[in-house]
Amino acid sequence: MTDFLVRAIIAGLVLAIVAGPLGCFIVWRRMSYFGDTLAHSALLGIALSLLLEINMQLAVIVACCVIAILLVIMEKRRSLATDTLLGILAHSSLALGLVILSFTDNRIDLLAYLFGDLLAVSNSELSIMLTGGLIALVVLAIYWNRLLSFTLHQELAQVEGLPVTRLRLLLMLVMAIVVAVSMKIVGVLLITSLLIIPPAIARHFSSSPEQMALGASATGCVAVAAGIGASWFLDTPTGPSIVVAAALLFMFAAAFSRQQ
Fold first, then answer.
1. What confidence score (pLDDT) does residue 201 get?
2. Is residue 237 part of a domain?
């Protein structure tokens, strides 16, 4: 097996394992649009990295984290609904990124960042992703019970004295890091699908949050394997193939659960 295919499989499986439990929080908190907002801010990070000539993944991580912090600050004011704030931040960051790109002399292939290029993952990119994924898993493991309490029963969590604002910020920052380090794999426009579809599948067959998180990771791994296989044998784009595989699994799961 060639080296680039091994790197692609490792990167895809790591992303699926991390995206599983993290995506559960997105589904539970009904924050699917937040992933799209981070994807748009990732494009802003790409533009800034080209303009300032700095490391692209570092710029994307910073841009995503800044957007996450802005959302938490704006949510505390409660002057607008969260989905309205997400729409403002998403389209503003995308427009700003495109404006910044017009001031650079670089001509980049945006399709690679929009839709992913998993088979082109390098050793250094794989290392960055493994590091980011490990950080996300460690944070989720340490704060799992507190994040779960805050997500499912926010009012009760406040009564119990949990730092709700800090937990919200922590969750959003972890999401920002995962989106930033995985943009090379499925692309910034498709990462939200990989965060949402596997947990939505696992929800049909889970009786506890922990089962749903593990099931989402397992389902994501199946989708990644199927997508890479389709890309290899059918010569289809890898990132979209993974998402299509996940979507097919969701349709099968939905049909099966209705028969029960």
1. 93
2. no
Q: Would you give the DSSP letter of residue 160?
A: T
pLDDT confidence of residue 44: 86
Report yes or no: 64 and 179 within 8 Å, Cβ to Cβ: yes
The domain spanning residue 26 has which CATH number?
1.10.3470.10
109: pLDDT strictly greater than 80: no
Residue 1 pLDDT greater than 80, yes or no: no
Identify the CA nearest to 250 among candidates 27, 83, 40. 27
Using only C-alpha atoms, what is the Rg of the chain?
18
Number of domains in the chain: 1
Which structure tokens are listed for 126? 């794989």
105: Cα separation from own chain's centroid: 30
3-state helix, strand, coil in the chain (%, to 5): 85, 0, 15
222 with 196: CB under 8 angstroms? no
Over the stretch 12-34, which tens digit does the pLDDT of each residue have? 899 899 999 999 988 888 777 77
pLDDT of residue 224: 92
Structural domain includes residue 118: yes
Alpha-carbon dihedral angle through residues 13, 108, 86, 213, given to the nearest 10 degrees:
0
